[in-house]
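My current task is to audit a protein record that another person submitted. I have pasted the whole thing underneath without changing anything:
***
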Amino acid sequence: MKTITKKDMIREIADAHGTNQTVVRASIDAFLDGIAQAVANGTEVSIPGFGKFKRRDMPARKGRNPATGESIDIAASSTLTFKCGQQMKNRLN
């Protein structure tokens, strides 16, 4: 499976739309920052036809060091989840 980087995407979008990469980079950065800020504030971001980004709060829990077997406390944390939309699922299959 090939990996496409942000830089590759910027180049492809700029070429496809006949614009310069600086404008595309600024637009993508603003878009991603908007998603990150909204999710960090607990807002679900829904992009119809693509999917939903959501913050998931993980509670504190007990864990175990696999090397020593020692019990450890794992702090509460937050993570980002993404649920693929139906149209995107259909494009993948």
Strands lie at 45-47, 51-58, 61-64, 71-74, 77-84. The first strand starts at residue 45 and ends at 47. The chain has three helices and five strands.
